[in-house]
Specification:
Helix content is 95%, strand content 0%. By secondary structure, it is mainly α. The chain is rod-shaped and about 160 Å long. The model has no long low-confidence stretch (mean pLDDT 90).
Length: 149
């Protein structure tokens, strides 16, 4: 009877060992699955990091594009200002040529022809200055519209 009890105890211990081995195998399999999940999460993190780098690079390129557009607007604005200044100077030149003509036209008939020609030349130069001034204003407006984009 004692031998049977010992044999039965041995069988129970063997069965307990088998269950512990099975539990160990299941824990090992769970560890493998957790390790695989960790690898997938790490890969997902790498892909998100790469996406972030690409978005950062896109932002840098858009910033550079904005800087270049700003520089283009500044250059167009400067060109418009220079054309406006040129128009003002031509208008002033035309006015200064027109004024002596007008003053020569007043005194008498002998000087009237020369005065009229100078006055006409001044008017034409003044008109040219006005047109250049208008062109400068249009370029300035175009630069403003580019800047607003």
């Amino acid at each position: 009877l004692r031998g049977c009890l010992l044999w039965l105890r041995g069988c129970l211990l063997w069965l307990q060992g088998c269950l512990l081995g099975l539990r160990w195998c299941l824990l090992w399999l769970r560890g493998c699955l957790l390790w695989l999940r960790g690898c997938l999460l790490w890969l997902q993190g790498c892909l998100l990091w790469l996406r972030g780098c690409l978005l950062w690079l896109r932002g840098c390129l858009l910033w550079l594009q904005g800087c270049l557009l700003g520089l283009r607007w500044c250059l167009l604005w400067l060109r418009g200002c220079l054309l406006w200044l040129r128009g003002c100077l031509l208008w002033l030149q035309g006015f200064l040529l027109w004024l002596p003509g007008f003053l020569l036209w007043l005194p008498g008939c002998l000087l009237r022809l020369r005065g009229c020609l100078l006055w006409l030349r001044g008017c034409l130069l003044w008109l040219r200055g006005c047109l250049l001034w208008l062109q400068g204003c249009l370029l300035w407006l175009r630069g403003c519209m580019l800047w607003l984009r």
